[in-house]
Amino acid sequence: MADVVALVDDLFFQSKLIETAKQVGVELRTCGTPDALTAEVSKSTPRLVVVDLNGQSNPLAAVECIHSLDREIPLIAFLSHVQTDLAAQARAAGCRDVMPRSKFTRDLATILARAKSQSQ
To answer: Which domain range does residue 93 map to?
Structure first.
């Protein structure tokens, strides 16, 4: 079971997530589509789901789907800091925390480590 599952279709950012997860000892699975994310979450219950709201494959629908599957799974989303309307939509869809990409990137190791500590 992955500690963290992430919907990220940006290959550069996927690499950053994977490398940071390795550094903090977190098992991470990345998904490129909402369907892949839903399938991954359905077969195991991760400690955290991360969603890039600037993805190309309707990430907001993925948030709604994951939230409907299990309201207890923490959902964290990140996006461009100027997209306040999208941030509000993500919160309404079930995201526990929505943050600018810069803050998410800066705090990534802490966020992933927190997910790891919840799994022990």
So the answer is: 4-118
Q: What is the dihedral of CA 115, 51, 80, 21, to 10 degrees?
A: 40
Q: What is the mean pLDDT of the chain?
A: 89
- CATH code, domain carrying 47: 3.40.50.2300
Total number of domains in the chain: 1
CA 75, 76, 79, 85 torsion: positive or negative? positive
Instruction: Specify the pLDDT at position 110.
Output: 95
Q: How far apart are CA 72 and CA 48, in angstroms?
A: 10
Give the neighbor-by-neighbor strand order of the sheet with 97-100. 28-31, 4-7, 48-52, 75-79, 97-100
Check whether 68 has a pLDDT greater than 90: no
**Whole-number pLDDT of residue 120:** 46
Sign of CA dihedral 54, 55, 56, 58: negative
